[in-house]
Amino acid sequence: MQAGVRNKLVSRFIVSLAIAFLFGFVVSETSFQILTRNTEREVEDYQIIIPFGTAERIENGFLIPSIPDSMVFFEGDRIIVKNEDEISHQLGPIWVPAGSTGILALEKPQSYSLACTFQPTKVMGLEVRQRLTNDIRLQGILAIGLPSGILIWLFSIVIFPLDPQKREEEGLWAKKN
């Protein structure tokens, strides 16, 4: 391969990657901004208050309106369970005696089904989502930019050949037809 052709290929490859990474940045950041509204936030503490009389209501099959069946959190969040009932309650690994407070730290992103004595179903679903980091954003840009750059480069070689003699032949052929 001639040095001039090689240099043209390399420069075309670099320009193709630059265009594709710019495109990848725009697509990735636009979708990131649309999909992550109100999700990029600091670590939070959520308080669940078990009201007085909860055990009796659960025995009779009634829901506690102030306590949802399932909740969505982000890694690092904490659930603070305050038990105002007259008996002890459990939420997964934490046991909360009557009149006290227990804390459940949500460190790992995954879906949980925790044993829960203050729900009629005896189960509480928790979804812990991963926090969005700059690494995740960079992966999105790379996932779009790299393959697109290679495809742009390959298509540019097919559409705009590098060999000037071949271009002239194609031009003459096009003029004859």
Task: Give the terminus-to-terminus CA distance.
Answer: 32 Å
Number of domains: 2
Task: Quickly name the level 1 CATH class of the largest domain.
Answer: Mainly Beta
Question: Could you estimate the helical fraction of the residues in percent?
Answer: 40-55%
| Number of helical regions | 4
Major sheet characteristics: 3 strands, mixed
Structural category is alpha/beta
The H-level CATH homologous superfamily of the largest domain, spelled out, is Cupredoxins -  blue copper proteins
State Rg: 30 Å
Q: How many beta-strand elements?
A: 8
Q: Which band does the percent of strand residues land in?
A: 15-25%
Query: Helix-strand pattern, N to C?
Result: HEHEEEEEEEHH
Mean pLDDT across residues: 85
- Can you tell me the overall shape? rod-shaped
Q: What name does the CATH topology of the largest domain carry?
A: Immunoglobulin-like
CATH architecture of the largest domain: Sandwich
- Order of strands side by side in the largest beta sheet? 1-3-6
Low-confidence stretches: none
Task: Describe what is shown at a glance.
The protein has helices at residues 3-35, 54-59, 134-159, 164-176, and strands spanning 45-50, 70-74, 78-83, 89-91, 94-96, 101-105, 110-115, 123-129. By secondary structure, it is of the alpha/beta class. The strands form three sheets. A three-stranded mixed β-sheet has the order 1-3-6, with no helix packed on it.
